[in-house]
Structure formats: C-alpha cells, structure tokens
# Entry
Amino acid sequence: MIHRFPKVCDRCASPGLGEGGYALPLALAGSLVLLLTALSTLSTTLHGRRLLASERSERIETDALASAAQQLTAALQGPYHCLLPVSLDQWQPGALPSTCPPALDPTPLKTSAQWRGQVRLVDWQPSPAGGELRLQWVGGSRQQRYALTVDPVWRLREVV
Amino acid sequence: MSLIEWVMATGVFLSAGACSLQIWASSAKATQQLGVEQRLLLQMDGQLLRLRAHWLQVAASQPTPMECQAAVDWMLQDPLANQAPAELAQRFSRLADGLGMAVVLRSEAANLERRRLFTPAALGLCVAEGVG
# Structure
C-alpha cells in the first residue's frame, strides 16, 4: 500500500524552480574562493615587505656598528693609544694612565654618531694580543663584539 | 531557474574576479619589487665584503705598513676598489679626521643606500706615527 503525502505547495513542485537555484550559491562560493586566494597572496606579499624592511634596518645597524669599530680602532692606534692597555671602566678623565696626555678626554670614544643612529661602546677588554670591543646600537638591544689584534699588524675582525 | 538569478550570479562572480585580479596584479608587482630589493641588498653585502677582503689582502702582501693619511689617499684612488656592480653606484669620501673613508653604495632603482666607514688602521694597512 502506497501512502502519498499531501503537497505543501503546488509551485514548489514545478520543474522550473525545482531544478534551479544553484547558480547564485555556486557564484558566491566561487567568488569567496577567488577573494580568499587573492587575500592570501596579498598577505604573503605584505609579510615579505615587513621582512625586507626589517632586513634593511638590520643592515643599517650592522653598517653603523662596523663603522664605529673601525673608527675606534683608528683612534686607539692614534691619539688615544695610551688607552689600549686599560679596560673601559678605567677610561675616566683624571684617572687615565700616566702615558696619556693630561688633557686627553676619552668621553668622545664612548658614543659614536653614525649615519642614521648612534653606537655606544659597551666594553673594552685589553688582552696581550690586543683586546675586544663590544658595541651596542643605541635605541636597540643589538650588540656586536670585535677582536682587535695588534701584533704583527693591527687588524680588526668581527667576533661571531 | 530565473533569469534574475543568472544575472545576479554572473554579476557577483565577475565583480569578485575583477577584484581578485587587481589584488593579484598588485601583489605580483610588489613581490617582483621585493625580489629586486633583496638582490640589491645582497649585492651591497657582497661589494662591502669584497672591498674589505681586497684591502686585507693588500695589507697582508705589503712589506711595511704605510703612514695612515697616505693609506687613506691610496684607498680612495685604488682602481680595484673603485669597481662596483653595474646596478650600484659607489662613492668614496674621506672622513673629516682624515683617518678613514666612507663607502656609500646606492641603488636608484630600489631607493636603497648604505654607508660604511673603513679605516686603514683597522685593516692593517697603516701604522700611526709613534706606534710600533
């Protein structure tokens, strides 16, 4: 025995609407996929741009630190040569070694103005071979160490 | 299916497609520019390393170090150091204290500039007067 349910509405059963109705949801779904893919590409590009900006800043800091180290070496070989065997905490006017000229002020060596920023001398530890410089980018936490050897020739190298 | 539904679906899809296309195009352009900038940054790194290595090599091969001012003069005129990659403009200038020089590398294409100082004292090219 076959039971037949009563029709709720006559128009619903008409072939025109019963087969249709998929175009708009399909278009919406397709559009969503397209937009999400494009937005994902855009976000990758923006991330890449942020990374590059960070790399550029890092290079500026590296250049400033390396430049300051080169200048400090020239100063220690030149007019501030008497400071070479003395650690940084002893670089105080009035407490300098007797080999230093009386008017010598080591303060300018402690901060160095570089292109787009400043570099601070955090530490200088002399050693029999020369010594080690530690420099810091002012306004950031980045520090870099440089080893200075004075024998047989003066040479500065970055400590990794 | 009604004609209105088809028209609406087509309209929505075309709008989304056009919008996505624009985003893709701008992303592709930006990605290409990023690639160029990245390459130039690496070229600048390479050039700075090359300069330093060249001067260290000269210092290692010279029998006696020069006087520091003379060494800066020599570095500024050094023909091998004056060669830079085609995409970079390189400029040397003497520092005010005369004890070193600044190397400026610039790329107009990516609006990139780097500046690094070199002193002959740190490269082993010279010894200041009175220093053994």
About this structure: Chain B touches chain A through 53 residues (CB under 8 Å).
